[in-house]
Amino acid sequence: MVTLDYIDKYSGIDSIIHRRDPRATIIAFTLFILCIMFTRPESFLAFALYGAFIFVLILLSKIPIIYIIRRATVIVPFVLLIAIFIPFLKKGESSEEINIAYEGVMVFWNVVAKSLLSILCMILLMSSIRFPSFLKALEELRIPKLIVMILSFTYRYIFVIRDEFQRMIRAKESRSPGIKRWFNIKMLANMVGVLFIKSYERGEAVYLAMCSRGFDGTMRTMQNNRFAKSDLYFLLTFVTTLTSIRIIGSL
Amino acid sequence: MKDDFGYAPDSVRDAIAVDGLVYHYPDGNEALRSISFKVKEGESVALMGPNGAGKTTLFLHINGLLTGSSGKVEIFGNTINGKKSLREIRRKVGVVFQNPDDQLFCPTVYDDVAFGPLNYSFSPEEIDQRVYDALNSVGLSGFEERISHHLSFGEKKRVSLATILTMKPEIILLDEPSSNLDPRARRKIIELIKILEATKVIATHDLEMALELCERGIIMDDGRIVADGKIRDILQNKALLEDHGLEVPYSLSCSNSAVK
């Protein structure tokens, strides 16, 4: 099982990336991902350079590369599973067989390369900011408060719900030793149902607790991130690098 | 109901006055059946009773989170009605819920403790100061940036208390403050509650704690108040306690038999 506790496991390190204002990091990586998305699949050089750039960023961030790879392996299978069908679904304009195959493979490459690079970006982004600061930065970037609130509650309660579920699994297993999991799908379904009701009731309890402290529907928060000059330099360097990669790639 | 039970003299004003409060659950079951009592300013009252007696439901009414189908609740003489009075009353009345995971819903301890003051639009400096003071008074200075789900249960309980203290409430309602705590954490929270300068109502099964913290006790069962008096008198009344799913605290039963 993936340890959810450590979504921002390496966010405490001190590095040139970690020291940035979260807003700068978020903007930089969003630009990066957009850049990757809008690169033509034929410009292999550009993709190689993107990869190299991410590698440099990982080195700068001092996050163990093994950790990033391990996180990526969690998501990559899903992408592959989806991407593998695309060549078959995509209809080639030309009827020549060889052409269809080539187009399909290009689409496959396009999806896999882009998603792999974007995943690496996201992992690096999420492990270089503490999650609470990430949320605050989103808010300062004028992301709708409702979305930030949903993310915040998810982050707060996903662990509580997981713990609850694990307790239920343990209680179940202590009463049904030796039964193979596969045969217990019905039981599992019941447990998910109970979990849903529990979460629903918790939602009500949390809402009461919020109201009792004067909540009236508007979420108020303190703004305390500071955008420094070094953050601006960081962003500029980032954008320059991306632009040069695109120019080199399209040569 | 007379209020000559507590130690507070008659000249002290009523902090809470509940009169004929009735509440039905959405499914029609009666949760509160005509509850009436008063709490004087500065009093500490233990609200005892078996599970499902309606203690928590009563708390939700005192804070204006629920409104009964009949009867009224007055906080310092002001009836709870309308949005404006609700806001004012919720600032004056703080509820510490039983489960800290319900009370602490923000990513960091700071956000949680600052949540109340933020809703009342204090200045950032004032909020910082209040958060610092509140965490300091529960002995958790420096916990601001900690993440709530990484705290121990005892710490969560204390942070929950801090989230109320930042509002500087005049009435504090505590729902099972000592439940699920180990003796050391329980002792810590009792000492914290003891020095709080506010009118306190504590719903609890921990009768030893009730005896230690409160001078007056109320027993609730099945949505009714069945006894109201000096805590010692109530906790020594074996027949009464056992009728309502409670028992005489060990400390009292020992001293009694010693006397006899």
Please identify the structural class of chain B as seen in this structure: alpha/beta
The averaged pLDDT of chain A comes out at: 84
Outline the low-pLDDT stretches of chain B: 1-6
Could you tell me the radius of gyration of chain A in angstroms? 23 Å
Helix share of residues of chain A?
over 70%
> What's the total count of β strands of chain A?
0
Helix and strand sequence of chain B = EEEHEEHEHHHHEHEHEEHHH
Strand content of chain A: under 5%
Q: What is the overall silhouette of chain A? A: globular
What would you report as the Rg of chain B, rounded to the nearest angstrom? 18 Å
Report what the structure shows:
The complex is a heterodimer of chains A (251) and B (260). By secondary structure, chain A is mainly α. Chain A folds into two domains: 4-138 and 226-249, no CATH class; 143-211, no CATH class. Chain A is built from nine helices and no strands. Chain A has helices at 22-37, 44-61, 65-83, 86-89, 97-127, 131-140, 145-175, 185-211, 229-249. In chain B, helix 4 (109-119) packs across helix 5, helix 4 runs parallel beside helix 6 and helix 5 (124-137) crosses helix 6. Chain B contains eleven helices and ten strands. Mean pLDDT of chain B is 89; it is low at 1-6. Helices cover 39% and strands 24% of the residues of chain B. Chain B has helices at 55-62, 82-92, 100-103, 109-119, 124-137, 153-165, 183-194, 207-213, 231-236, 238-243, 250-259; strands spanning 14-24, 30-40, 44-48, 70-75, 78-79, 93-96, 171-175, 199-204, 216-221, 224-230. In chain B, 46% of the residues are buried. The longest helix of chain B has 14 residues, at 124-137. With 260 residues, chain B is α/β, with parallel strands linked by helices. The chains are: A mainly alpha (251), B alpha/beta (260).
